[in-house]
Design goal:
Layout: E1 9-14, H1 21-32, E2 35-38, H2 39-52, H3 60-68, H4 78-84, H5 87-96, H6 100-115, E3 123-128, H7 131-135, E4 141-146, H8 149-160, H9 169-185, E5 198-201, H10 207-219
Parallel strand pairs: 1-3, 1-4, 2-3, 4-5
The chain binds cytidine-5'-monophosphate.
């Protein structure tokens, strides 16, 4: 007998750096038992691969070669995860991510993940900058998670300072503002709230409160 599997439920979570979208998306994925994809990690991996090869993330050919060689499976390794979370990886990511050829190369892998979530999961949660607008415009639920630049810098500073005691909060704030500007003003798939996305400002919310607010939106 032939059985048709139901279409997976897709939840798109977009927003700027350190807005809390990654933590929120992971919590929602646990709660619903959905598959989770951190799409920023894909761009970070491309940026880091360019740097490791001695290339320039702002160079079209270097960025495209790294995107074409990207192996999704390798991203889950612990060493790779640690390398991807550095400030340099974030900056390199935002340079390669501005290139239309790089985005085109990564687009299908993200859609495949959403439409065919691994391990037989019945839904997928993707977080990034363009999930609700470009990658999965028909997602069942869309959240745009934000917070003031100062609050985001404080959060990122606490995270990055563990590995770099020379780091200052001013540097982190500058990096966040530069990255916001690059991500929001690029021509291809700029970071923006989809017209039908729910805006969630986490500036004054704990993680638990943000999760509650997201669940209330999804239940509506
Ligand atoms: O989310 P995260 O800070 O890890 O993303 C790193 C960079 O990757 C972002 O600053 C952005 O330039 C890029 N990115 C993107 N589109 C996505 C996810 C991330 O352009 N869907």
């Amino acid at each position: 007998m032939c059985s048709l599997s139901a279409k997976p439920t897709i939840i798109a979570v977009d927003g700027p750096a350190a807005s809390g979208k990654g933590t929120l998306a992971r919590r929602l994925a646990e709660k619903f038992d959905y598959a989770y994809l951190d799409t920023g990690a894909l761009y970070r991996a491309v940026g880091v691969a360019v740097l490791n090869a001695g290339g320039d993330p702002q160079d079209d050919a270097d960025a495209l070669a790294a995107a074409q060689a990207l192996q999704l499976e390798a991203l889950n390794e612990a060493d790779t995860q640690a390398t991807l979370r550095t400030a340099e990886a974030g900056i390199a990511a935002s340079h390669v991510a501005a290139k239309p050829q790089v985005r085109a190369c990564i687009l299908q892998a993200q859609r495949d993940f959403a439409l065919h979530p691994p391990a037989g999961k019945t839904g997928a949660i993707l977080d990034g900058r363009d999930i609700g607008t470009i990658v999965c415009p028909t997602a069942a639920h869309k959240l745009f998670v934000t917070a003031s630049a100062e609050v985001r810098a404080e959060r990122r500073f606490l995270e990055l300072r563990r590995d770099n005691d020379q780091l200052t909060i001013d540097e982190v704030l500058r990096d966040i503002k530069d990255r916001d500007a690059r991500d929001a003003n690029r021509d291809t798939a700029p970071m923006k709230q989809a017209g039908d996305a729910h805006l969630l400002d986490t500036s004054d919310l704990s993680i638990e409160e943000a999760v509650e607010a997201a669940l209330a939106y999804i239940a509506r």
